Amino acid sequence: MAGGNSNYWEDLRKQARQLENELDLKLVSFSKLCTSYSSSRDGRRGDSSSDTTPLLSNSTQDRMFETMSVEIEQLLAKLTGVNDKMAEYTSTPGVTSLNAALMHTLQRHRDILQDYTHEFHKTKSNFMAIREREDLLGSVRKDIETYKSGSGVNNRRTELFLKEHEHLRNSDRLIDDTISLKASVSILIMEKMNSRFFFFCDPRKKESLKHCHGNQGEHDLPARIVEVYTEQGQHPGQPFPCHQ
Fold first, then answer.
1. Fewer CB near the terminus (10 Å): N or C of the chain?
2. Which fold has domain 6-161?
3. pLDDT tens digits, residue range 182-193?
């Protein structure tokens, strides 16, 4: 140590001022980094294509944050060391006559160091809080997107199932309509054909439906119809037109 040499004191003050200037610049940049980190997350939440979105990705900002934190901590440690040397110098017996002025200067440098330390920890804590919050929100948004994607797939499957079900119902309806149409046509054809057929009726049967034999097979005719033809002069075994 240079003892009471004033040059030593001035050298310490010069080192302190230089470190304080570096810290001031670093802290300004550090604060801007934290602000841009928050803005980038807000921009991505609002619109990923927004022109206000920073060029730096969050991973790059995270690396810069870690690097700048280490640099600022190193500068604070150096400034603390310089302040300790200044305090040690003020305790030297040879400078007691100047002790009041030296202590005033030392206290000013200590206050600056305390302010920079407080600002650094405050900015760092804010950055960490923002990053933790955004990581949590990002995880929640990811879960929501995953749920929406899964719901979209399920909705698509449900829609396809309903369409297929409706298609099958339409097919069944078409088949039923076709069968009904064919049955109606068949009935019309049979009615026209039966009007030309002759049957031989056996009215001696006592059932309510008389059993008749014709060229298209056997038929059961109502007794009333058979009796009418009998009253018109037809006899058992004689042919008469079928009016079924």
1. N
2. Methane Monooxygenase Hydroxylase; Chain G, domain 1 (1.20.58)
3. 666 556 665 555
